[in-house]
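Handout, tutorial session.
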Amino acid sequence: MKNRLRHMIGGGAIALINSCGALGAFVGTYFVGDLSGPGNQFRNAYIFLSISLLPAALLALTLPSKPRRRQPPPTTIPPPAKESFNV
């Protein structure tokens, strides 16, 4: 059941990442077109892209370089508990 749930969550996570990428592509293109103006001068657009790259780079630098290791599930069966009888 756990493996099946992981696959279902993984599909939703990939869809969310893909949707955010598509939204970013639309918004970025819109801003570049709006900032370039009617004369198609891309100076302001390049400045906008450079400034928006800085927070993305800082965010990427704050992420850990190695993922955290999970504790593996126990593979051995624990010994049975000692039973005590009060006679």
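The second record follows below. Compare its token runs with those of the first.
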Amino acid sequence: MSGDRPGRLRHAEPVMGTVVSFDVPDWVGPTLAEAVRWLHWVDATFSPYRDDSDVSRFGRGSLDRSLRDACARRARRSARNH
């Protein structure tokens, strides 16, 4: 994380096939690092463009059984509620 304005942190993070820019107060530093980690987790989990993402593996039918079962239970629960 870097910045060129006193009291501010400016950071550009390449993630999800784009760049996410931050301009935040410097006291946000640790939270900014958490936000960046979260963005990479979201990308790794939900990206349909990454072969190693959970969404891509789910689409290929290659997720482990426990996760497939959890998804099926959630889908049934959601269908009952709508």
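Points raised in discussion: The mean pLDDT is 88.
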